[in-house]
Amino acid sequence: MTVALGIHCGHESSCAVVRDGVLLAAIQQERVTRRKYDGQEALTNRLPVREVLAAAGLALEDVDVVVSSFQAAGPSGVGLQRPLVSPSFDLFDPFDARHHVVSHHLAHAASAVYASGFPEAAVLVSDSAGTSSWDGADVHVPFGEFHRTYYSDAPTGPASRILTEMRSLYAFRQGRFDLLEREFSEPHNQPDVFVQSEASLYDNVARFLFRKEHAHGQLMALAALPFEGPARLTADDIVTPGPRPRPRNGWQILEAATDITRNADIAHAVQEAFNRLVVAHAARAVALSGIPDLCCAGGVFLNLSGNTAIGALPQVRNLYVPSCPHDAGISVGAAYLGWAHASARAPRTPRPVSPRKVTSDFLGRSAEPITPREARHQGYAVAATADLSRRAAEVLLDGAVVVRYAGRAEFGPRALGNRSILCHPVACRNAKAKLNGIKKRQPWRPVAPMVRSEDLDTYFIGPGEAPFMNYDFEVREEHRAVLKEIVHDDGSARVQTVTADDNPAIHALLTHIAAMGQIPVLVNTSLNGPAQPIIESAPDVLAFARHADIGFVLTEDGLYASPTPRKIPVRRPDATVMAVFGAGGTTRYVLSNGGAHVAVGRDLFVSLLEQEYVLTDGTAADVAEALRAGVLAEA
Known about the structure:
By secondary structure, the chain is of the alpha+beta class. It has 18 helices and 31 strands. The termini are far apart.
């Protein structure tokens, strides 16, 4: 038996555990620290090592091999504020002979290949930047050797140029990764303008239009919106024609509209150009390897439209994109590589082949129990403690929004039913608007349908399966009117397929809905608010579910009705001034009457802009303070 612990050090840090080729557990650091996209470049005690081992039912003493990957380590550029190991790190000895280091793109490739179940595969890895090195080659070495290399003096002469992975093509055969082609990123003093790949294209335009990081999902949704008049930009402006398109320069001189939806033409052109690039690279990976089964990994493959275009290539027989293709998935690849390397070196052990296909993403920590007593203490009513699937189906078909908090958490960025906000697309009036309102997202953002695999072809056209919500589907014309809440403006839907084996609770829920004569489709979005990781704790779930539009919380053991919010009528005196200071996490919302200034929460502030009363309990303390200060008055 071989137990391998994989660690990713970088943004979106994570840990994963593989035992004898089986992925047992994986956890992103943000889920533990509660800081969105949390990570660091060094081994630190903040890494979720103990948490992931506990989720796997193991301890550090059970680990045979540890494999780390350091995303931003620069040769001859480590130490000071960027060490490889934090001085306080004490989870294990990093110089232990069992500890190895692998490079970024190799770990990405392994995260997809070993989870695909393919005995051999073509592999495409693409992201903004991977490992930096002097020779651009893959790395799988003991930590001590990696440490010596990266702390050594920089070479001189032609070999002194640092190479940073940008795109890699592999062939995977007989348990080996053969690098077929690699392209490296070009250093530039304007990286937020210079476009050299599909990754930088999408990232730079998303930052430009939305004026913030991590807006790729919003750009993807914006690209599907309609626009009037001639487009200001086309895909032909952005990339060259032909079977090997390359990014052009000069088209970046753009003026974005203040109303973000009026930039749909730009988003559409960027999405089409992006698709042309990834399709060309995928076709090349298959052609160079001679293998029709393709695996893709890297942050680029969070893009559903791009994945769908790749899957439609006639030369691609099967496509596998893991649940977590972005950098958090590096720890999974590292763990797989540790297992494969240790198994291949063991005496009388055959070279390992691909493990079984991974089709479930429930790899995180188990939900904390919520007892009826605790629920009542928090103001919730116990709606049911037995026959939960049927009772949940009934309240969903009554139009309720239900928070599901049960089982093990999803590892990847998309909630797949265990940490989800659910409703029925027909029974719940204005379902998309409600879910986007709960999450404080733009009203044009799409929500995702969940459907049993056996019902997929009845309602949708697209790939044969999508357990991780990685592809765009077309909603069948005859169902678009009734399923309008899950249809995006271009007729697409980002479907999640559900089977009884991989997702038994949601499958049972959909089966009860079908038995009640209703369309067996649910609307799903992740259980979190803006700039917040998916919620992991019971107290946070109960606090979140007090929202006025959430009706119930569904756990493994109970269905609980959310407290009914009280309406407190208030009015704004004419002298009340409303002001916003700062931005992002430092934003302050202030009410003032000249003599008193009261900082309030965003929910109260927004509701006062729109109406003369506020919903509470969540804002009761703010209302009480504003009434005492005289900046609000009772209606």
